[in-house]
Amino acid sequence: MQEIKQVLRKYEYVIKVGGKEVWRGLNPKEKYWEIKEKNPDKEVGIAWCSQDDVLIC
Hints:
Blueprint: H1 2-10, E1 11-17, E2 20-25, H2 29-38, E3 44-50, E4 55-56
Antiparallel strand pairs: 1-2, 1-3, 3-4
């Protein structure tokens, strides 16, 4: 179980609004809709990244 937690800490999601990072964490589902409602006219996207600063969009 400890190994899984260590792996999860290495990877997280990033939510961007208009190309700028506004949130970073492990569970983006609720935050995405909250951020989307606050920014109805802007592009909101989710990316997955690692601690090695590799962004996969």
